[in-house]
């Protein structure tokens, strides 16, 4: 099959700065792409790289798009190199959207951007529960209630951003402020030392053993840097509190490597940067891994494809990490305009 290919970069400012151990993030940049086949069916895709997380850079993705001809084939889509995982996801998910089609209405206009937004809203109520992302630091103490009122019962809080003594003080306040039925995830983004990771895990275990923990600490996410895999493997065996890998399994290659090296804990999968959706499906079905699917702060176009993967591949009913809408202004108008111009 041959496809007419068009693309356009975008910039989208966060409503509030996102602070992690990797630094501050103010603007989300990516690429919207469109594939039109010979029967005029249209598939929309999105390339949303996060280079500091393990994907290609935005410039590398743009260079790849710029060097492609206006007409591409299936071979083009399925031969994108592994060094461009966000491109793999964007093109392949656009291909899937364009080929799934509706028997009575195969022609999809630019309003499919609107459709993506609407379908995401529909999926929100029918999929797994969402995890709401809290801001780092003391701001979490004021933010959780708004998200609770919106229906969130699982929260993720960024740690490894401030001095550990201060974060432990906030943590103590937070766990006694959140309702008892809450699940809390602590995300270090690889920002802890081995000693700090031990302290966090010991603290969580100790609170649980002593019956002082009114809620569930579901896991600590990526406590150590990627290169300290063995340290995380050791920690996972020494404590009751679970550890989830995130940056360590950003791409399919990394995910497979960690599995081969013995990781049987939780894998946080970010579809937008992991790589090929078809290869991800094959890996998850083959190895039956414990997954938490998570956002890369994409638009509704990539989120629709990511949520469909989450619905298909999640095994343990864990909340998915797509509770990030409150970090952006509403996207309908600008996204529709961008798609219409393609």
Can you describe this structure?
Helix content is 41%, strand content 23%. The chain has helices spanning 58-67, 74-77, 85-100, 112-126, 140-149, 164-175, 194-209, 229-238, 252-260, 271-274, 277-287, 300-313, 332-340, and strands at residues 2-20, 23-37, 42-47, 71-73, 130-134, 154-158, 183-187, 216-221, 243-245, 266-269, 290-293, 320-323. The strands form 2 sheets. Strands 11-10-9-8-7-6-5-12 form an 8-stranded parallel β-sheet. Strands 3-2-1-4 form a 4-stranded antiparallel β-sheet. The protein starts with a strand and ends with a helix. Mean pLDDT is 90; it is low at 101-111.
Give the secondary structure arrangement, pairings included.
Blueprint (H helix, E strand, L loop, with lengths): L1 E19 L2 E15 L4 E6 L10 H10 L3 E3 H4 L7 H16 L11 H15 L3 E5 L5 H10 L4 E5 L5 H12 L7 E5 L6 H16 L6 E6 L7 H10 L4 E3 L6 H9 L5 E4 L1 H4 L2 H11 L2 E4 L6 H14 L6 E4 L8 H9 L2
Parallel strand pairs: 5-6, 5-12, 6-7, 7-8, 8-9, 9-10, 10-11
Antiparallel strand pairs: 1-2, 1-4, 2-3
Largest sheet: 8 strands, parallel
Query: Strand share of the residues?
Result: 15-25%
The helix-and-strand class reads alpha/beta
Q: Quote the average pLDDT.
A: 90
The helix fraction, in percent, is 40-55%
Strand order of the largest sheet: 11-10-9-8-7-6-5-12
- Overall shape: it is globular
List keywords for this structure.
about 350 residues; alpha/beta; 8-stranded parallel sheet; 13 helices
Could you give a quick summary of the protein structure above?
The protein has 342 residues and is α/β, with parallel strands linked by helices. Helices cover 41% and strands 23% of the residues. It is built from 13 helices and 12 strands.
């Amino acid at each position: 099959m041959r496809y007419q290919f068009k693309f356009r970069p975008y910039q989208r400012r966060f409503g509030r700065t996102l602070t992690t151990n990797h630094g501050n993030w103010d603007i989300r940049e990516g690429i919207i792409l469109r594939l039109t086949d010979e029967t005029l069916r249209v598939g929309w895709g999105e390339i949303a790289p996060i280079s500091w997380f393990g994907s290609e850079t935005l410039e590398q993705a743009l260079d790849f798009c710029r060097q492609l001809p206006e007409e591409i084939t299936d071979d083009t889509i399925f031969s994108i190199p592994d060094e461009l995982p966000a491109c793999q996801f964007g093109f392949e998910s656009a291909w899937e959207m364009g080929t799934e089609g509706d028997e009575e209405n195969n022609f999809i206009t630019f309003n499919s951007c609107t459709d993506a937004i609407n379908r995401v809203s529909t999926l929100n109520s029918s999929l797994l529960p969402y995890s709401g992302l809290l801001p780092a630091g003391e701001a979490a103490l004021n933010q959780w209630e708004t998200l609770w009122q919106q229906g969130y019962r699982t929260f993720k809080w960024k740690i490894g951003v401030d001095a550990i003594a201060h974060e432990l003080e906030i943590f103590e306040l937070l766990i006694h402020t959140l309702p008892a039925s809450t699940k809390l995830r602590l995300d270090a983004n690889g920002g802890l030392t081995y000693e700090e990771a031990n302290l966090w895990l010991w603290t969580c275990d100790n609170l649980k053993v002593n019956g002082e923990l009114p809620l569930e600490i579901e896991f600590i996410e990526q406590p150590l840097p990627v290169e300290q895999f063995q340290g995380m493997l050791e920690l996972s065996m020494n404590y009751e509190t679970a550890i989830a890998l995130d940056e360590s399994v950003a791409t399919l290659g990394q995910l497979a490597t960690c599995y081969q090296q013995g990781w049987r804990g939780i894998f946080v999968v970010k579809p937008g940067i992991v790589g090929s959706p078809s290869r991800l499906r094959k890996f998850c079905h083959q190895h039956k891994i414990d997954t938490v699917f998570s956002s890369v702060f994409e638009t509704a176009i990539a989120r629709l494809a990511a949520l469909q993967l989450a619905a298909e591949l999640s095994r343990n009913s864990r909340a998915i990490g797509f509770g990030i809408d409150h970090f952006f202004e509403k996207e309908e108008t600008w996204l529709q305009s961008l798609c219409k111009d393609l």
